[in-house]
């Protein structure tokens, strides 16, 4: 499947937990469980470059922590059954307490938490620090979206006139926009590198391969050992068969972020969050967009009601058309004066539909795990559709269904939830376990956002998913809504288009899901996600105080409008 590599969200039970793209990255556990929040208290560490006594003291503290953590970890592993199947070939002494393969956002988060916990830590990176998010994903895309947001404001004469503003025609410099995105990625990459070096994380350059229990090869010749290993190798753009990518006229998100051209007409294959964000950028900069979506509706991963409103605001008024329920079976790059051609077939009948001719095509069909060449065969681990199987504590599972001792996998490579901040949270959760605290991350409390204008954000279950769960478990579901048109701050900004939706249990006040479409939705969602994580009930949230006038009052009114039995 192309635009969505999962089944329709209207049937969430059929969607595999490990999938490609935003739609299938949302968690749909087969058995709902009550999990604890990743509420991690950061320890304060002192550093001094001038005082030898301080340095000595820090070394003593680190040694104490290392010994303490080793003892605690041994106890925890025994209680968790972590030593089953341990190999006699495992080393008796180690170069590091923890080695992390992959220096993306997930690996970085795990490394920083590990050194704060006193673990001697190394991180292996075969490409560049920052991984997909920093270099080819969320960071540079937000730079482009910042530009598209400014352009929309300057181009909206009606909006400006309502505010009493007059602005001459807005224009942009393509190379300047591209440089802004590249410079931001460079800056954030440098910040991540410096933060790890400052805290004493060893950065090992080279491709990491697992040689066996607690052994990693870095590059061609270097072999290092560690008591525990975390795989955090991330993902790459997924390109379906029949699509020829030339990097110029048929591109992936990796190429699009370089903004080497602004085509007059571009087809975007896939209407998930990647496709939506790029449609926002391209239309703001003057392109016409055609969506090609395999499912019967656009934005299949979002709550249906939010998706319909978002389509009315983000799609219909803009220079965007779309084809739903179709596959792009063959895409040929532009050549010798001929345009890009896209051959479409009916997604159900497989009958030919039509052939599109456009200036460029962006393949936004999700992402595939980057797990080839990791040496998983050396530890009897077989991937599932490329994903490394793990349990709820991110411990790797081998081909026999047994846990692999001292080996974990976080982030896109395990497919549980393909979001950068989810990878970081998983890494922190693993480090908590290694340092003596059993911990399970609640993926239903992890928010997600689409940075269009306006933004879309969500946490927990969609309404169809919640109702399916309620039918299976025998409880009632209620829905509350509030509009941005009732919010003073939104009206002051002349941005009243928006909706917040709460899905909950009226019998006990449990929040099942929250979905927001509107101004700064990505910032507003965290009050709801933290409430889910901490198990806070609606009856308590009704008593919370919010500053006036602020957008946060959208959530305040939402919780207050919910009808709870007690």
Automatic annotation (TrEMBL):
InterPro entries: Class-I_Pyr_Nuc-Dis_Oxidored (IPR050151), FAD/NAD-bd_sf (IPR036188), FAD/NAD-binding_dom (IPR023753), FAD/NAD-linked_Rdtase_dimer_sf (IPR016156), Lipoamide_DH (IPR006258), Pyr_nuc-diS_OxRdtase (IPR001100), Pyr_nucl-diS_OxRdtase_dimer (IPR004099), Pyr_OxRdtase_I_AS (IPR012999). GO terms for cellular component: chloroplast stroma; mitochondrion; oxoglutarate dehydrogenase complex. GO terms for biological process: 2-oxoglutarate metabolic process; response to arsenic-containing substance. Disulfide bonds join 133-138. NAD(+) binds at residues 270-277, 293, 366. Coiled coil: none annotated. The active site is at 548 (proton acceptor). It holds the Pfam family Pyr_redox_dim. Keywords: Chloroplast, Disulfide bond, FAD, Flavoprotein, NAD, Nucleotide-binding, Oxidoreductase, Plastid, Redox-active center, Transit peptide. Residues 96-427 form the FAD/NAD(P)-binding domain. It catalyses: N(6)-[(R)-dihydrolipoyl]-L-lysyl-[protein] + NAD(+) = N(6)-[(R)-lipoyl]-L-lysyl-[protein] + NADH + H(+). It comes from the Eukaryota. Its cofactor is FAD. Gene3D superfamilies: 3.30.390.30, FAD/NAD(P)-binding domain (3.50.50.60). The keyword tRNA-binding does not apply. NCBIfam families: lipoamide_DH. The active site is a redox-active disulfide bond. Homodimer. Part of the plastidial pyruvate dehydrogenase complex (PDC) containing multiple copies of three enzymatic components: pyruvate dehydrogenase (E1), dihydrolipoamide acetyltransferase (E2) and lipoamide dehydrogenase (E3). PANTHER family: DIHYDROLIPOYL DEHYDROGENASE, MITOCHONDRIAL (PTHR22912:SF151), DISULFIDE OXIDOREDUCTASE (PTHR22912). Belongs to the class-I pyridine nucleotide-disulfide oxidoreductase family. This is Dihydrolipoyl dehydrogenase.
């Amino acid at each position: 499947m192309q635009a969505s590599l999962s089944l329709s969200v209207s049937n969430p039970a059929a969607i595999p937990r490990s999938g490609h793209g935003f739609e299938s990255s949302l968690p749909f556990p087969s058995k709902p469980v009550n999990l604890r929040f990743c509420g991690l208290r950061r320890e304060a560490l002192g550093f001094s470059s001038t005082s030898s006594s301080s340095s000595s003291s820090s070394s003593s503290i680190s040694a104490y922590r290392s010994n303490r953590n080793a003892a605690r970890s041994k106890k925890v592993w025994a209680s968790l059954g972590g030593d089953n199947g341990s190999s006699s070939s495992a080393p008796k002494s180690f170069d590091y307490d923890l080695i992390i393969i992959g220096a993306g956002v997930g690996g970085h988060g795990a490394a920083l938490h590990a050194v704060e916990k006193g673990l001697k830590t190394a991180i292996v990176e075969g490409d560049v620090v920052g991984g997909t998010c920093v270099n080819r994903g969320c960071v540079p895309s937000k730079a482009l979206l910042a530009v598209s947001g400014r352009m929309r404001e300057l181009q909206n004469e009606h909006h400006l006139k309502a505010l009493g503003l007059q602005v001459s025609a807005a224009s942009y410099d393509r190379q300047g926009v591209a440089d802004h995105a590249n410079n931001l990625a460079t800056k954030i990459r440098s910040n991540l590198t410096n933060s790890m070096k400052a805290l004493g994380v060893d950065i090992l350059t080279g491709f990491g391969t697992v040689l066996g229990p607690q052994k990693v090869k870095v590059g061609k010749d270097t072999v290092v050992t560690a008591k525990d290993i975390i795989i955090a190798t991330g993902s790459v753009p997924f390109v379906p068969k029949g699509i020829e990518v030339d990097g110029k006229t048929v591109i992936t998100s990796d190429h699009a972020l370089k903004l080497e051209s602004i085509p007059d007409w571009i087809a975007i294959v896939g209407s998930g969050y990647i496709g939506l964000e790029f449609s926002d950028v391209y239309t703001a900069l003057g392109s016409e967009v055609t969506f090609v979506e395999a499912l019967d509706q656009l934005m299949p991963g979002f709550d249906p009601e939010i998706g319909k409103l978002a389509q009315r605001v983000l799609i219909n008024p803009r220079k965007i058309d779309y084809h739903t329920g179709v596959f792009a079976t063959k895409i040929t790059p532009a050549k010798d004066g001929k345009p890009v051609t896209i051959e479409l077939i009916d997604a159900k009948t497989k009958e030919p539909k039509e052939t599109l001719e456009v200036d460029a095509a962006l393949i936004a069909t999700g992402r595939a795990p980057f797990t080839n060449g990791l040496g998983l065969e050396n530890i009897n681990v077989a991937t599932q559709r490329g994903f490394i199987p793990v349990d709820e504590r991110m411990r790797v599972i081998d081909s026999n269904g047994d846990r692999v001792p001292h080996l974990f996998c976080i982030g896109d490579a395990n497919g549980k939830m393909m979001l950068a901040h989810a990878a970081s949270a998983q890494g922190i959760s693993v480090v908590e376990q290694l340092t003596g605290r059993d911990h399970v991350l609640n993926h239903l409390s992890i928010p997600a956002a689409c940075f269009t204008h306006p933004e879309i954000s969500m946490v927990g279950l969609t309404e169809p998913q919640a109702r399916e769960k309620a039918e299976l478990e025998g409880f009632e579901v209620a829905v509350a809504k509030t509009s941005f048109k009732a919010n003073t701050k939104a009206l002051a900004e002349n941005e009243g288009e928006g909706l917040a939706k709460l899905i909950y249990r009226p019998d006990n006040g449990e929040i099942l899901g929250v979905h927001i479409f509107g101004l700064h939705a990505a910032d507003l969602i965290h009050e709801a996600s933290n409430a889910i994580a901490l198990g806070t009930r609606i009856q308590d949230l009704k008593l919370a105080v919010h500053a006036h006038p602020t957008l946060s009052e959208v959530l305040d009114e939402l919780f207050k409008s919910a009808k709870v039995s007690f």
